[in-house]
């Protein structure tokens, strides 16, 4: 009866019956790296400067619109009148700075209850 080790040796011998030594996989394939360099160059060349300028102008337009909307929102909030007592009440109850209390009151049109509910959520 054959031992387990004998069977393993026979299987290995059958796999290498061609007589050629098996090649080990290469750790680094320089051909793939060269190909990557070529494709990177081609991709960069495809992007023209006019496309880049168009994209940058779209981004700039979007940012300016967002800034303008934010400034308009701040102007609207500044117009809301709030009471000093309400600010102090929120500051004392919630233990928050004056600026946060004022902002919350302004966002909720001076309503103390709505401002407190928003701050607790």
From TrEMBL:
Acidic residues bias spans: 1-15
Span of domain Nascent polypeptide-associated complex subunit alpha-like UBA: 80-120
InterPro entries per the UniProt record, alphabetical: Huntingtin-int_K, HYPK_UBA, NAC-like_UBA
Ranges for region Disordered: 1-34
Composition-biased stretches (Basic and acidic residues): 21-34
Gene3D superfamilies named among the record's database cross-references: DNA helicase RuvA subunit, C-terminal domain (1.10.8.10)
Top-level taxon of the source organism: Eukaryota
Biological processes annotated in GO: negative regulation of apoptotic process; protein stabilization
Protein's name according to its UniProt entry: Nascent polypeptide-associated complex subunit alpha-like UBA domain-containing protein
Organism listed in the record: Electrophorus voltai
